[in-house]
Design brief:
The protein has 255 residues and is of the alpha/beta class. The chain is built from 11 helices and 8 strands. It is globular.
């Protein structure tokens, strides 16, 4: 649906879910800086602790850090070698008890404060969408958080809205060809049988999203997995599109 009357606004975020994603952060930062792009990074406490230098580099570069919980429940996946690791959590976030979800949020927050010296004010539910549970807003409010980006535009509508706890929820944008899903690198590139893995296909869809927002207004809010989107070359193609159109991105706090 059109979002006439607001924007256009463009947000690019990255979920640093696996060590392989953290390891490419120096190259990712260099690329973003070359194009002068603001971005947000959803970070997991256990990786912040294990890879402090890479995460410190995000802070030093001025990027927004989002709490993505301490361990990212349900990170284990038997079909992918990088996710087939015994230490990774297997329980979906929405199947945890409420107190366990609260603990994941508060531990992730505490780790970011301790290791990086900043207090995040934003959150993303692990695997978001169907695994998001609205009871996260109470502990987020207790921590003074301002926003979450954890729901699908196709389910909750594309416009940001206020929760009863006073946080802004900022929906993730849909894929132009698959409007009941999301436009992300997992759907496009990463999973087995990915939908838009041909070189340039993901960037072409990005151009569709961008041009629609420029024409009609609205919000484009996307998230990517760093390794896939960087090493495929699709991120650079997408940044070139922004550069050609002289479009600036904002982070969630800026929005």
């Amino acid at each position: 649906a059109t979002q006439r009357g607001i924007g256009p606004y463009f947000i690019i975020s990255f979920d640093c879910d696996f060590p392989r994603d953290v390891e490419v952060l120096p190259r990712l930062i260099a690329l973003l800086q070359r194009y002068g792009v603001r971005a947000s990074f959803a970070c997991i406490g256990q990786w912040v602790r294990r890879y402090p230098d890479e995460h410190h580099a995000l802070v030093e570069a001025g990027y927004e850090i989002i709490n993505h919980t301490e361990t990212h429940p349900n990170l284990y996946h038997p079909d992918y070698d990088y996710a087939r690791v015994e230490e990774l959590s297997r329980t979906p976030f929405n199947r945890l008890e409420s107190r366990q979800r609260r603990d994941e949020i508060k531990r992730g927050h505490a780790t970011i404060v301790e290791i990086l010296g900043i207090e995040p004010t934003g959150f993303r539910t692990p695997h978001f969408g169907a695994l998001h549970v609205d009871d996260v807003y109470a502990p987020l409010g207790d921590l003074g958080y301002r926003f979450s980006s954890s729901v699908l535009a196709a389910v909750r509508g594309g416009l940001p809205y206020r929760t009863r706890e006073g946080l802004w929820e900022i929906p993730v944008s849909p894929c132009p060809l698959h409007p009941f899903g999301v436009f992300d690198s997992w759907h496009s590139l990463g999973k087995h049988g990915a939908s838009h893995a041909h070189p340039g296909a993901m960037a072409d869809l990005w151009a569709v999203l961008v041009d629609a927002a420029v024409q009609d207004g609205g919000l484009v809010n996307v998230y990517f997995d760093p390794k896939d989107v960087l090493e495929s070359g699709e991120l650079e193609r997408m940044l070139e599109i922004l550069d050609e159109r002289k479009i600036e991105t904002v982070d969630y706090g800026g929005l």
